[in-house]
Specification:
Order of helices and strands: HEHEEEEHH
Oligomer: single chain
Strand content: 25-35%
Shape: globular
Length: 147
């Protein structure tokens, strides 16, 4: 899995207790903000909800990874594709996750190619604040790069 929270989700779906997977302070990198921690918890606890469509990791500076997911249980009138973008600050040992919702796979690819607007917000009653989800995630390294 391209993101730690997705790997944790996979393990939970196969019977691993969720509390055994949460990494404590001082272990590797830490979430940079509450929105990241909330999104990770949502992903970790959504066993079998999302199917990985595609992903990419650029481990250079700046580090970025993204995962395109299909939501198998979208709410009515909700976009079925999710794009999760991780950006890491290696120097500070922190990372952020941001999520966008797209009507179809093509719309997600267009956003990845252009990155000229905020990620489309994801309607969820319990989740990261919409302002945090809507952060524009520019990256010269991955703009225009597909599969």
């Amino acid at each position: 899995m391209p993101l730690l929270s997705l790997a944790q989700q996979w393990l939970v779906a196969r019977g691993c207790p969720p509390e055994a997977l949460v990494l404590g302070p001082g272990s590797i990198s830490q979430p940079a903000d509450a929105a990241t921690a909330q999104l990770e918890e949502h992903l970790r606890s959504s066993a079998d909800r999302y199917t990985l469509v595609d992903h990419y990791t650029d481990d250079g500076e700046p580090f970025e990874a993204w995962a395109l997911l299909r939501d198998s249980h979208p709410a009515p009138d909700t976009a079925a594709f999710r794009l999760i973008v991780e950006s890491a600050d290696v120097r500070s040992g922190t990372y952020t996750l941001r999520e966008g919702a797209f009507a179809d796979e093509q719309a997600a690819w267009e956003w990845l190619d252009e990155r000229d607007r905020p990620l489309p917000s994801v309607p969820r009653t319990a989740g990261p604040p919409s302002a945090a989800r809507a952060a524009v995630m520019p990256s010269a390294e991955t703009a225009g790069r597909r599969r």
